[in-house]
Amino acid sequence: MPKTKKKYVCQECGAVSHRWQGQCGDCGAWNSLVEEVGETVFSAKHDLSTGGRTIALSKLDADVTPPPRLTTGIAELDRVLGGGLVPGSAILLGGDPGIGKSTLLLQASAHMARQGRDIVYISGEEAADQVRLRGQRLGLGDAPIRLAAATSVRDILATLQERENTAMVVIDSIQTMHSDRIEGAPGTVSQVRASAHELIRYAKESGTAIILVGHVTKDGSIAGPRVLEHMVDTVASFEGERSHQYRILRAIKNRFGATDEIGVFAMEGAGLTEVANPSSLFLSERDANVPGAVVFPALEGTRPVLVEIQALTVKLASGATPRRAVVGWDSGRLAMILAVLEARCGLNFATSEVYLNIGGGYRISDPAADIAVAAALISALADRPVPDASIFFGEIALSGEVRPVAHGNIRLREAAKLGFDRAIAPAQKDVPNGISVQNVVTLANLVDHILTSN
Question: What does this protein do (predicted)?
């Protein structure tokens, strides 16, 4: 008789353990291990080298045509997807609750349905009437979208297989789906993995693009097993703060396009609207004569976005412990910049509290922001504004050397288009008209430039 082997699966990260324990050994979550039915263990070994069928092998240099694209009618969404939806592709869209995932997909579904395409919207969290009321509130009530409220993957697949030429299917959300072939409640690791596998297999066999909406954990990562992100073709994250108007759709993985591409939206009464020029959004109502305020040309995929970096230093009484607070940037990198400024330039931040903020709630991971952050800190410490109509970018080494960064000409063109006429950065080639570059070789050059500028 074969015996069944017990296993315990972490509901946070998907790690498997063969005995229960209070804390997951991989992610550290408490009380997250749930017993699931394991595989059947046989005493005899099986030989996999026989009994299979031969597979066809092809050459790498064989002719292949680019996959066709289905435009969604929303240019910012098409940009993130690499030009539109690829038939048969699977897309995972994650984001915080209430950020606008369902609104974005409902608007995209309406645009495509009005173009004559067959669009199916399956909601596992809301009734069909609730989705219909939202569509009417957004002015999409006349769109011929096929709606349903269901959570059974078997029922959903049976319904979809009766339809032909379906262009796109939206599943909102994958954590609510349930497969009767797997034991466990909806949302568990095994249910999410099995449900996604069946839906993705349908997409590949039928040529229908499928979009899976995913919940996120408290730290912002997509809930469920990590293998879910490996199964799909594209992973996109919808980001933003509820207190801010804008939303950013960011591509994390894309088998059919560039990664790190972004689309910018603004949440308004009529739903999400596209922001064609995000730089103007993040620099609106900016006062250029404030110490500690510096403009940095960030690069997201192929799109340059000008954002404001704000710094503030506050003198402390002797003996107090200075505080370092960062919003929108890496706190470890701020500590490195402060250390280089003290060691290589002789500036003293040990007796000051330091606060750093990226304007508009934007988040930056570009290392080219080093020079802009350093300039904001120097300006705040000296209480001197940086030169007007200037941008700053470049990477700082621990030696105090300023190193070049990629795509400097793209950053310069965007700055010149918005009226900036000076860039403080490493030496650049192919400088566009309308903007000049002041070369800085070391961090000491940057300090001299800010302290001696008018």
Answer: Plays a role in repairing double-strand DNA breaks, probably involving stabilizing or processing branched DNA or blocked replication forks.
